[in-house]
Amino acid sequence: MTELGRRERKKLQTRQSIADAALELFLARGFDAVGVKEIADRADVSVTTLFKHFPSKEALLFDEDEETEAALVAAVRDRPAGQSIPQALKNHFLSVATNHADHPLFATFVQLVESTPSLRAYQRALWLRQGTSLAHAIAEEIGAPPDDVRCAGLARFALEARDVIFGRQDREKVAETLFGLLEHGWAADQQS
């Protein structure tokens, strides 16, 4: 891996400073009560600089979007030999849940997003885009066309399952159940 130059490091630091300031203000007072000028002032940058790093106010709260998408695709492409795609996705979401859902601010973050219509809509749009990338990665892995409906369905189900997993205390059991449906089908889960 190549080391970042000074300029790139400075850009990353500025971006992180803006994202941190936005999160702090949003969690303290709510998304709609905070303006972008206030965030820029808190991060000690101009509003123009803020918008060079983030295309919208909503994007300030989802600053790890590219990393999230790359990790989803990597979970499929870099899975161990012999591991199914549903199992790889299950393991990925359990790992993310362990790293994020137990964070002390996670519940507050989720509450902020859920209580703000523009944030819910923005997050949904991100998930749809990530679902498309995930579906293409799945299709590539199984040798299917990029628009294969099975791959799109698996990607969409996996992304929706993430919210169910994160919302439960018994995450591992829930993940096993949901991804077991993908692995074995609905009929296998039914009792006569």
Describe it.
The radius of gyration is 19 Å and the shape is globular. It is mainly alpha-helical. It folds into two domains: 6-57, Arc Repressor Mutant, subunit A (Orthogonal Bundle); 65-187, Orthogonal Bundle (Tetracycline Repressor, domain 2), CATH 1.10.357. The relative contact order is 0.10. Helix content is 73%, strand content 0%.
Q: What would you call the quaternary organization?
A: single chain
The total count of helices amounts to 10
Average pLDDT, all residues:
90
Q: What is the alpha-carbon Rg in Å? A: 19 Å
> Which shape, going by the Cα principal axes?
globular
Instruction: Provide the domain count.
Output: 2
Let me know the CATH homologous superfamily of the largest domain: Tetracycline Repressor, domain 2
* Residues in helix, %: over 70%
Q: Which CATH class of the largest domain?
A: Mainly Alpha
Q: Beta-strand level of the residues, as a percent range? A: under 5%
Q: Enter the CATH topology name of the largest domain.
A: Tetracycline Repressor, domain 2
By secondary-structure content and strand pairing, the structural class works out as mainly alpha
Q: Measure the end-to-end span.
A: 55 Å
Give the second-level CATH assignment, the architecture of the largest domain: Orthogonal Bundle
Number of strands: 0
Largest sheet report: none
Spans of at least 5 consecutive residues whose pLDDT stays below 50 are none
The helix/strand order is HHHHHHHHHH
